[in-house]
From TrEMBL:
It catalyses: ATP + protein L-histidine = ADP + protein N-phospho-L-histidine. It comes from Pseudoduganella flava. One of its GO terms (molecular function) is phosphorelay sensor kinase activity. The lineage of its organism: Bacteria, Pseudomonadati, Pseudomonadota, Betaproteobacteria, Burkholderiales. Pfam families: HATPase_c (PF02518), HisKA (PF00512), PAS (PF00989). This is histidine kinase. Its EC number is 2.7.13.3. It is found in: Membrane.
Length: 338
């Protein structure tokens, strides 16, 4: 791409691109700053400098750590408020003319914040709607267990099974539908991200308590990937749970990870259960959808919906396909830069 093409992109981009020297002095801000501030480009540079001053206060310490060999400080990301607008600021240290400079971008994340707010409200509503009947069942089964002194062993076993199921559902609410948990996914990502293979191995180890035949295959995963650790682990756990529930008890489940053919990174969960009917394939990620195979299988129809919501926040995609031989493949794709 020619320099003129880059200039054209910067002129029409909605994000504010910028460059600063090692002292924190802004050398350049893209035309988007002037449009957002409602002033000339020269005035925008001065106003941007005033807004950026407190945000660049840690630059000297960051430069010193970088010069001492701490390469993890080359790129940083943070969220802040600029003129009462929530923004995400990403910056990278680069060498230019023999000197270190800081280049970056400022993105308006108002839409993301609104999405997170709605997500938190949804989680609160859903958690409440589930907990109310579960609390009733929980209290009733505890009373039955306390008063069933003359019940036979088969009846007591059924009571224990009901109590165990209620406890598991309440634990899932705490694990997956906590409003704070859902709202935090994708909002503040760890700079170090995740070790993808380690994440897959940990998820597989946990899943083997239910399906010993869970295997992991590494097809060229990077050592580190910038992503929300809790969010991505939740996605893998939910896909594994789905595969275990909808495939024969003695069949294998494969957990794959590697470089995607189109670029980026992919994770896949492959099972050997029945295919999804073609008419249902386009709805499996819909909120509350449960297919024809779900009859008699406990569930809420929210696991795949939540998986898609988390992957969307990361800028990726999640898809499903029926395999020619047998089984299904759920695939998460993430851009390499997330």
């Amino acid at each position: 791409m020619e320099a003129a093409d880059f200039r054209l992109l910067l002129e029409h981009s909605g994000d504010v691109h910028w460059m600063a020297d090692a002292t924190g002095r802004l050398l350049y801000v893209s035309p988007a700053a002037a449009r957002r501030l409602g002033c000339t480009e020269q005035e925008a540079l001065a106003r941007a400098q005033a807004l950026a001053a407190p945000l660049l206060a840690d630059l000297p310490a960051r430069l010193e750590r970088f010069r001492q060999g701490d390469d993890s400080r080359r790129t940083a990301r943070r969220e802040a408020e600029l003129d009462a607008i929530p923004v995400e600021i990403e910056s990278t240290l680069v060498e230019r003319g023999g000197a270190l400079h800081l280049v970056g971008v400022v993105r308006d994340i108002s839409a993301r914040r609104e999405f997170e707010l709605q997500q938190k409200k949804f989680a609160s509503m859903l958690s409440h709607e589930f907990r109310t009947p579960l609390s009733t069942i929980d209290g009733a089964i505890q009373r039955l267990e306390m008063t069933a002194h003359d019940a036979d062993e088969a009846t007591r076993k059924r009571y224990r099974k009901i109590q165990t199921s209620v406890d598991r559902l309440l634990a899932m609410l705490d694990e997956y539908l906590s409003p704070d948990r859902l709202a935090a996914i994708g909002r503040q990502r760890s700079e170090d991200g995740i070790a993808p293979l380690q994440m897959l191995e940990a998820a597989a180890t946990q899943a083997r308590a239910r399906r010993p035949q869970v295997t992991v295959r590494d097809a060229g995963l990077p050592a580190w990937l910038r992503a929300d650790p809790h969010g991505m682990r939740m996605c893998i756990d939910l896909l594994l749970d789905n595969a275990i529930k909808y495939s024969p008890a003695d069949s294998p489940v494969e957990l794959l990870g590697g470089k995607a053919a189109e670029g980026g990174v992919e994770f896949a969960v492959v099972d050997h259960g029945p295919a999804i009917p073609e008419a249902e394939l386009g709805h499996v990620f819909d909120k509350g959808f449960r297919g024809s195979a779900a009859v008699g299988i406990p569930g809420s129809g929210l696991g795949l919906y939540m998986t898609k919501a988390v992957v969307d926040v990361h800028g990726g995609t999640v898809t499903v396909e029926n395999l020619p031989e047998s089984g299904k493949k759920f695939r998460i794709w993430l851009p390499r830069g997330v």
